[in-house]
Design goal:
The complex is a heterodimer of chains A (about 600) and B (about 240).
Chain A: H1 3-12, H2 17-20, E1 36-42, H3 46-49, H4 53-64, E2 68-74, H5 78-86, E3 105-109, H6 116-125, E4 141-145, E5 161-163, H7 167-184, H8 188-195, E6 201-202, E7 207-211, E8 217-222, E9 231-232, E10 260-263, E11 265-266, H9 276-280, E12 285-286, H10 289-303, E13 307-311, H11 321-333, E14 338-340, H12 348-356, E15 365-370, H13 374-379, H14 386-398, E16 403-410, H15 417-437, E17 447-454, H16 471-484, E18 490-494, H17 497-507, H18 513-522, H19 536-546, H20 550-554, E19 569-570, H21 575-586, H22 603-607
Helix pairs in contact in A: 4-7, 6-18, 10-11, 14-15, 15-16, 16-17, 18-19
Chain B: E1 2-9, H1 18-31, E2 48-50, E3 59-68, H2 75-85, E4 90-97, H3 105-108, E5 109-119, H4 128-137, E6 142-147, E7 150-155, E8 160-168, E9 172-180, H5 189-199, E10 209-221, E11 224-226
Parallel strand pairs in B: 3-10
Antiparallel strand pairs in B: 1-3, 1-4, 2-3, 5-9, 5-10, 6-7, 8-9, 10-11
Classes of the chains: A alpha/beta (about 600), B alpha+beta (about 240).
The structure holds iron/sulfur cluster.
Iron/sulfur cluster binds next to α22 of chain A.
């Protein structure tokens, strides 16, 4: 590959730094002294991929190993892709600019369904055959992980191997095996077969799906007795002891999350019924404040970042939040390192401190009540009341914020028209609250933005059985909200129901969808998560040509006992528990936060001593 | 205390934009524990500025930062600490103290010297020295600038102070040029290249441009053109 030409081509792209690499703290190794060349692939552009905490962890974790060199690769934006195709430049890794087709392993992180066509496109740009059936001993191993890996079935044709659960431990076991296998000259399938002995490793080619005449899955079974019929997710036991990077790459360009991310805990106990993350990342495991402070010191020293954010699924629930926040603020005041805080729990202690600390950004605050009425919030087990919301808004207004953002979902199970209308009532109350709290007349006007996304039923949640609202219904709901939210100082934004339909199809899809993905990609679908690139008609044509009905996947109510394409994956939360939660949802019954007492989601977690 | 420091930016980091570079240096200052002075006011910002913005894609050995510190600091220590913490491809070379009463470097710089490498192909068979002479002997060189506000035609002849052929091989020719830089008059080296290609009737093509490198910046001191390096050494008097 002509690296000088590549260098010049970058200069012609809109943002060359996306491809340049050489950032602060980028790892440099001599490629002759490593056994394994690993490309960590994020199927979206640089500024999104570089904002992702999991990538930072895995990058530095793999690079701790002397025998491996982990580099990064992102989806080039369309302008760069065009140049690369024109000049026949294969997809390259940022560190060495070497083509990824020469690597041993390419590991994709699967964060959202709408990035699937980007994965195909990256393989193709990398001059690597898309399916495992087409690849041979000369090609890199294509592996995946991340939340969407739990139902990898729609992507089963493309991945050699998938990791279920947290990667920190299993990646070492896998790389050890790989390096061993390389020395022994193991064939690709021999290596993959051995890899299935590692807990949490799923090799799709060793499983086969059978379907009923009506299209439902009958079973997904191993084709060989030697591979496990059920694959259990990996869980890291002690979050204080597990690897966490003490340095992070500091990008030159402005990325989405351009700051130090401190992971304070994993898992979530709230039990929101729509939320996949809340189920698949169980149980809750915290890092201690001591460990976090130690990490923060090192990270500030090594990155020079001016801001720290606390990362978790619900930061307000961290058991020692007050101590942590106070200590962080005190320690870094001198260095002018600001702390960005979660929105909802602006408890008094934090408020007092934020007044003192310079550099706390007052741009806008976000709240996620998810549903407009109390009844519907009970259905989804979102334990938040109107009183909480108004109080938080009042607090925010009092401390000088004027822009508040509220996220809701439409198309939730059991939703009725009055639930939607209550979104309008709530918006009005919040607006009134602003005018009641302001001390003087005049001054800035409030800006309240309400945004809705369309509910997508996800596997491994209590709502995995429900039908997504049809596109027409969703559009009607959006229209209703447009009317209801025609209020001064309130803006309303909504998303494309077509994109939500596709997300729903692939979230709960099966293996047959691989063909649709290829066809859609061939007809130009990439960056589907970007509204300006999303080609709904091309997608529908792809379904039609492959004889599959998207509505079968998205808009169909499933039976209690239906076999799901992902039933052979064990995320520890039992199907029985999920069904019971669904039934409680229908009755609008709440389930308590399991920090207050186990609600029995998983004999597995209890058995392994992961939950108290 | 005020310091000016010269630094270089090489191939590995040449695509960092000016704005991103600023943020990078601020972070490096924090990591290097440099006692940067902050402005007063509602949103304090570090008191530092750059002599001249460098275009994306251009390498340089003549960049200058103008910075105020809260505490006294040996310029040498400043250099070592910064160089320890900078990413590869950026190096601080010299630092000197400067009197506070001297206006900002940004307002003083008027010229920049670049080394431009071009593909020899479009010039093949021509006497390049003569060609340059002809190009420069015109009283006026009109160039159409395109920017956000639209296109306007400017005479760039008076912004070109020198062009000198310094190297010629089968693949490339190398020109050292001195151009106006700064708020009063500014000519980007890419625009000079375009004008040159226009002069020999060649369609400008990014592949013909093999690289631009900034060698130094100049300001006028009592009629002489000196590099900012020549300014320093003065102790704080006031
Ligand atoms: S087993 Fe009990 S405590 Fe553990 S995550 Fe499930 S509900 Fe919570």
């Amino acid at each position: 590959m002509d690296k000088q030409l590549l260098d010049r081509l970058m200069g012609q792209a809109e943002k060359p730094v996306r491809y340049m690499g050489n950032e602060l703290n980028m790892v440099i190794k001599n490629i002759d002294s490593v056994d394994i060349r690993f490309a960590f692939a994020f199927p979206d552009i640089y500024e999104i991929g570089m904002s992702h905490l999991g990538m930072k962890i895995m990058y530095h974790l793999i690079n701790e190993r002397e025998d491996s060199y982990c580099e990064r690769v992102f989806a080039p934006w369309t302008d760069m892709e065009e140049l690369m195709r024109q000049y026949d430049i294969p997809l390259f890794a940022l560190e060495t600019k070497d083509p990824i087709k020469d690597f041993d392993i390419i590991g994709f992180t699967l964060q959202y369904e709408m990035s699937y066509t980007n994965i195909l496109n990256m393989l193709d740009l990398g001059q690597i055959p898309l399916t495992w059936a087409q690849r041979n001993e000369d090609h890199p191993l294509i592996i995946g992980g991340g939340p969407c890996a739990y139902n990898i079935e729609p992507m089963a044709d493309f991945f050699d191997l998938v990791v279920m659960g947290e990667g920190e431990e299993v990646i070492h076991e896998l790389l050890d095996l790989y390096s061993e296998g390389k020395k022994q000259g193991l064939k690709r399938t021999e290596f993959l077969y051995k890899a299935t002995d590692i807990k949490g490793i799923y090799v799709p080619r060793f499983y086969e799906a059978r379907y009923a005449d009506d299209g439902r899955v009958l079973e997904v079974l191993p084709v060989d007795k030697g591979v496990p019929p059920v694959i259990s997710k990996r869980v890291v036991k002690n979050l204080d002891k597990v690897f966490y990077p003490e340095t992070m790459i500091v990008p030159y360009m402005d990325i989405v999350h351009d700051r130090i991310m401190l992971e304070i805990f994993r898992g979530c106990t709230k039990g929101c019924r729509f939320c996949q993350a809340g189920m698949i990342y169980r149980p809750v495991r915290e890092k201690s404040p001591q460990r976090l402070l130690e990490l923060a010191e090192k990270l500030v020293e090594n990155t020079g970042y001016e801001e720290i954010s606390l990362s978790s699924l619900s930061t307000g629930d961290y058991s020692q939040l007050e101590e942590l926040v106070k200590e962080l603020m005190i320690r870094f005041k001198e260095k002018r390192v600001a702390l960005s805080l979660p929105s909802l729990r602006l408890d008094s202690f934090v408020k007092d401190l934020t007044h003192e600390v310079q550099g706390v950004r007052k741009t806008g605050l976000t709240f996620a009540p998810e549903a407009g009425s109390q009844r519907l919030r009970d259905v989804i087990n979102k334990g938040i009341t109107e009183g909480d919301l108004i109080r938080s808004a009042e607090d925010a207004f009092k401390s000088g914020w004027t822009r508040l953002k509220f996220y809701f979902m439409i198309g939730l199970p059991e939703e009725r028209e009055e639930d939607l209308k209550e979104i309008g009532t709530l918006a009005r109350k919040i607006k009134d609250c602003y005018f009641d709290t302001r001390k003087t007349k005049g001054g800035p006007m409030p800006r309240i933005s309400i945004s809705t996304s369309s509910f997508v039923p996800k596997p491994f949640t209590p709502f995995q059985w429900v039908a997504q609202s049809s596109m027409e219904e969703l559009a009607d709901k959006q229209k209703l909200l447009q009317d209801v939210l025609r209020i001064r100082h309130v803006t309303y934004t909504w998303n494309d129901p077509g994109a939500s339909l596709l997300e729903a199809v692939f979230a709960r899809g099966d293996r047959r969808l691989g063909k649709v993905l290829i066809r859609a990609w061939q007809s130009g679908c990439i960056f589907d998560g970007w509204a300006e690139h999303f080609k709904f008609d091309a997608w529908m044509a792809a379904f039609e040509k492959e004889g599959l009905d998207p509505h079968f996947y998205a808009n169909r109510v499933r039976d209690k006992d239906e076999i799901f394409p992902w039933d052979h994956i064990d995320v520890k939360v039992t199907k029985k528990y999920l069904w019971a939660e669904y039934q409680k949802a229908v009755r609008a019954e709440l389930t308590q936060d399991c920090r207050l007492g186990c609600t029995g989601c998983s004999p597995g977690l209890l058995g392994e001593g992961l939950c108290p | 205390m005020r310091l000016i420091a010269r630094y270089t930016k090489d191939e590995r980091v040449k695509y960092i934009s000016h704005l991103d570079f600023m943020r990078l240096l601020q972070r490096t200052l924090r990591r290097a524990d440099i006692p940067v002075a902050y402005s007063q006011g509602f949103s304090p910002h570090p008191k530092l500025s750059f002599a001249s913005a460098l275009a994306v894609g251009v390498t340089s050995e003549g960049e200058y930062m103008d910075i105020y510190l809260d505490k006294e600091m040996d310029p040498k220590l400043f250099l070592t600490r910064m160089n320890e913490k900078l990413p590869l491809g950026i190096r601080f070379m010299e630092a000197v103290t400067l009197q506070a009463k001297i206006p900002s470097l940004m307002s003083l710089i008027e010229r920049a010297e670049y080394r431009i490498s071009l593909s020899h192909k479009p010039f093949w068979g021509r006497n390049i020295v003569e060609l340059i002479q002809k190009f420069m002997s015109r009283g006026e060189i009109l160039f159409t600038r395109v920017n956000k506000r639209g296109r306007n035609q400017v005479d760039i002849r008076k912004m070109i102070h020198n062009i000198r052929l310094t190297e010629q091989s089968e693949e490339k020719i190398v020109l050292d040029v001195v151009l106006s830089t700064g708020s009063r008059a500014n000519l980007r080296p890419e625009h000079l290249i375009e004008a040159l290609f226009d002069f020999i009737n060649v369609e400008p093509n990014p592949e013909l441009n093999l690289g631009i490198h900034r060698r130094d910046l100049y300001l006028n001191k009592n009629g002489a053109w000196i590099s900012p390096k020549g300014l320093g050494g003065g102790q704080e008097i006031d």
